[in-house]
Amino acid sequence: MMHMPLDLTNLPTRRNEAWKWTDVRGRVSDEAAGLSAAGLPKFTLPEGITVSEIETDDLDTDSAMAKLARNFGGKVWAISVPEGFSSDKPLIIEGLNRGHIRMRIDIAKGASLSVIEHHAGDAGGFVNIDMTVTLKAGAVFDRTLVQSDPDDCVRIATAHITAWNDAKVSQHALSFGGALSRIETRLAGMGKNIEATLNGAYLLDDKRHCDMTSYIDLAVPDCTIRQAVKGVVTDKARGVFQGKFHVRRPAQHTDAEMRHDALMLSDTSEIRSKPELEIYADDVACAHGNTIGQLDDSALFYMRQRGIGLAEARALLTEAFVADVFDDLADEDLRESLLAKIRDWLNEIS
Amino acid sequence: MLKINNLSAAVDDGNKTILSGLSLEVPAGEVHAIMGPNGAGKSTLSYVLTGRDGYDVSGGDVTLDGEDLLEMDPEERAAKGMFLSFQYPLEIPGVPTMTFLKTALNAQRRARGEEEMAAPEFLKKARALAKDLKMKPEMLKRPLNVGFSGGEKKRMEIFQMMMLEPRFIVMDETDSGLDVDALRIVADGVNKLRSPDRGMLIITHYQRLLDYIVPDRVHVLSGGKIAASGDADFAKKLEAEGYDAYAA
């Protein structure tokens, strides 16, 4: 399907409150690869799962990026996970390197699915991913997302997750940024007793940008939400965290915690953070915490006194700071591979 | 071995002088104690010797085996064999004790051009030492010093010291936070490290520790310099009479 080129004025700008620190329009050039084209994701499927392409103009949200994905992304890549399904193999998604991509994952009652997404863009690329995930009663969804783009690639990856009663969502995102990247997760709690962990880490050098935005909307009781995001920025990089818990009146006994902690390794780097709680139910435990700091000089001296060089001491402390958001990752090998990427990054910047 | 000659140092960007003209020599094989009232500059001396930022040396020099220490970074001094047992050991969240210590040991060995210690040998040594110091094995798996009691932290300092086998040891108020039993275990560990080619400087406010680690010489630090010196019995005299006679 041919389209008119994308009109850049349709992209979000700083004037939109939700995009005030992530100026997509200001960062995208009209020559970006994939700006007006559909992307071609590659799926490695566990046995018993298939992927099909469906044609639909339905939109789950009316966000600007979702509309663009509908206009330029073509068909929807649909994956349905049958009732009671489980596998020790994850669904691996690659080829998220350019263009608009629409995906839909339906996880039936009592089924569980692990997804690993590799977000690695093309030089000068533009990527817009709109993913919809539905978890029926008792379904389990483990999502791991690793993102590292060239420094002239723009990426918006949005996931809309809808969870019904007793569903469990566990998300771990690791980002090394790009020219501009935004990982947005929107979770709607539709059935009671949902458990969700939404952790992430971003490590940014040079002039890279990463935005981790989330919106948790709870309209049902007895849900437990844990969110911990860690950031490390150096050089002239910019990290953005926007987190919101929206606890509606029926969502009694919500137990929700949001944390964002960032380390600034240079004076010229930047952190923008907006944690928000909007609570209408009266019997809930909701908390948020947000810190921005530097490495502890006393700890650094202690390590150096024992013979550890300054660069290695910084790397050890920084790795320890970031790593704990991945502590609860059940897949030990996967966890180790994320930590290895973090170590590589730390070696490169030192 | 360690020679401190006319050392002056200040904090607060050089505005507050703490050490003024301190001279001291600790020959190899000897253990010297430095005693003195609060605020005399005892901890400052330990930090100047090990190269902590924020302590500006305005005069004098310090050599270890003839090499100028003051020109070196803290990690270089450590590789040359300087070890400080901290008055308040730091907690290092997220870094397991064994990882920390193995990184430190091998960084020192690399800096000295020696071969790194292999994991099995390292583990064997660590386990044996932990047993000697009556430390629980799980302490070695936990992040360094995190959630440890004051006494456990001090024992961990001695454990690190015995693993790293430094040439020169500075102990800053090692006895604080230790009960008598722990003190005896720590002192046994330190005494085992006494050897003809190793020197030690024990900084302490109280004489108690020196009942267990008997020094060759005792010095009073007051007003930023050594105000008096004597043998091991001198410490008892100081304990009985106080430091007033040596006030700056």
What does this molecule look like?
- The complex is a heterodimer of chains A (350) and B (248).
- The longest helix of chain A has 18 residues, at 332-349.
- Chain A is of the alpha/beta class and 350 residues long.
- Chain A has helices spanning 24-27, 64-73, 297-305, 310-323, 332-349; strands spanning 42-44, 50-54, 76-81, 91-94, 99-107, 112-119, 126-135, 140-147, 154-163, 168-175, 180-189, 195-204, 209-218, 224-233, 238-247, 255-264, 270-279, 285-293.
- In chain A, the strands form two sheets. In chain A, strands 1-4-6-8-10-12-14-16-18 form a nine-stranded mixed sheet, with helices on one face. In chain A, strands 2-3-5-7-9-11-13-15-17 form a nine-stranded mixed sheet, covered by helices on one side.
- With 248 residues, chain B is α/β, with parallel strands linked by helices.
- Chain B is 35% helix and 26% strand.
- Chain B is built from eight helices and ten strands.
- Chain B has helices spanning 42-50, 74-80, 97-111, 119-132, 150-164, 180-193, 209-212, 232-241; strands at 2-11, 16-26, 31-35, 56-64, 67-68, 82-85, 168-172, 199-204, 217-222, 225-230.
- A six-stranded mixed sheet of chain B has the order 6-7-8-3-9-10, with helices on both faces. In chain B, strands 2-1-4-5 form a four-stranded antiparallel sheet, with helices on one face.
- In chain B, α6 links the parallel β7 (168-172) and β8 (199-204).
- Classes of the chains: A alpha/beta (350), B alpha/beta (248).
- Chain A binds chain B through residues 296-299, 301-310, 312, 316-317, 319-321, 323-324, and chain B through 50-53, 73-75, 77-79, 82-84, 86, 89-95, 99-101, 103-105, 107-108, 111, 143, 160, 164.
